[in-house]
Specification:
about 30% strand; about 70 residues; flat; 3-stranded antiparallel beta sheet; alpha+beta
Length: about 70
């Protein structure tokens, strides 16, 4: 049992986006994977973050308080 747990406060999902807009993309050249909110009008990821493993993906979802 942990008495002193670090609480992670979730951020609000940015305006214009929903949980359904979350998308992962991989680079064909370098193989880097990023996760962020996809803007269909601009056809690009907004608020993108680099993902190296499954723990980074889970941290992104926790950051915004969204379940997979």
């Amino acid at each position: 049992m942990r008495i002193f747990q670090k609480r992670v406060k979730s951020q609000a999902i940015p305006d214009r986006f929903t949980a359904a807009d979350i998308r992962m993309e991989s680079s064909t050249c370098t193989g880097e994977t990023v996760i962020g909110f996809y803007d269909a009008a601009e056809k690009r990821l907004c608020y993108a973050e680099l993902v190296r493993n499954e723990a980074d993906v889970a941290a992104f979802y926790r950051k915004y308080g969204v379940k997979r």
